[in-house]
Amino acid sequence: MITEYLKVAADSVEIYERAGKIIREGGLVAFPTETVYGLGGNAYDPMAAERIFAAKGRPSDNPLIVHVAVPSDAEAFAKTNDIYYKLAEHFMPGPLTVILPKKDNIPDSVTGGLDTVAVRCPEHICANKLIQAAGVPIAAPSANISGCPSPTSAEHVYKDMNGRIPMILDGGESRIGVESTVIRLEEDGCTILRPGEIIARELSAVVGNVYVADAVTDPAAAGDNPESPGMKYKHYAPKARLVLLSGDDRSFADYVNTYKGRCAVLSYSENIGDYLRAFVMNAGSKRSAKEQMQRLFSLLRECDNIDTEIIFAHLPPKKDEFLALYNRIIRAAGSEVIYLDK
Ligand code: AMP
Ligand code: MG
What we know:
The chain is an alpha/beta fold. The chain has ten helices and 16 strands. The protein has helices spanning 13-24, 46-56, 82-91, 108-111, 125-134, 154-161, 200-207, 249-257, 289-303, 323-332; strands spanning 4-7, 29-31, 38-42, 65-67, 96-101, 116-120, 138-140, 167-170, 181-186, 189-194, 209-212, 241-246, 263-267, 279-282, 310-314, 337-339. A hairpin with a 2-residue loop joins strand 9 (181-186) and strand 10. Helix 9 (289-303) packs parallel to helix 10 (323-332). Bound molecules: adenosine monophosphate and magnesium ion.
């Protein structure tokens, strides 16, 4: 299959028309969002979901997120409620995915056989234009080969999907860089199933209690039948061994500098000059979870282009705005952590 690669802006009307038609007719289009790039298909078409799983090499029990142009569009396929609309008022369009009971018109292949459906209304203008042009909700996971880091640029998508899908829309780098916050609604609040840019403190101001699923910080807690199927899969790992170090900046640098083999380091920008022999990559400021999130997946992909046997990175704090970072990097490292402070 020939993959068309097109740069898009808000006013690329003809391109959205063509892309929307591909989706309506059962084909796939990769598109930019503020979190990561998505691989979209018609959410009402079971064959489109099958094509998504095939293109990604993704296990088909791992459900897709259904993207809408405005929050009320979810009425067509999900059972909404007051809390959903309250959340929508504060966080949509934006990087929040809400799990709701599904209606019968959403095929099982989209929800991995679950009786719930994940709903998101992206803020990226190109994603919004595409959904409107398609005229149907768009089911989309991240547009990477299963197991690889999610794509934060159209170049990443091209590398994974060239020859596998008919069209890639290039709308520039993703602003956030990690996937959306996924929540399940509870009687008295909500539970975070996957952390993202929207954090517990912000959700709590709107819905009351916010719980965090165990598997968010402990991949092993996901088990075989987790609350959110994506929790159980290996994710984001570079080819070289990634090891997280927990300790102050001095002991981190000392550990890296005494390592005997070929090594690389995902360094805080403040500490770039501290390493003697390691190949150094700038992971962003120690103080900015947002900057580190925006760079993480791109850096994990870059790790595969350098000749190293091991990559060292900081173990992020296990809280609030760093939780999405912690959740992604602990999976990328296969939970391999060395505590320098114990
Ligand atoms: P991704 O394509 O990587 O953004 O993955 C979407 C993720 O959303 C899945 O891996 C699931 O973990 C989660 N998800 C989607 N639908 C549901 C659902 N109905 N219930 C719980 N989690 C869901
Ligand atoms: Mg994904």
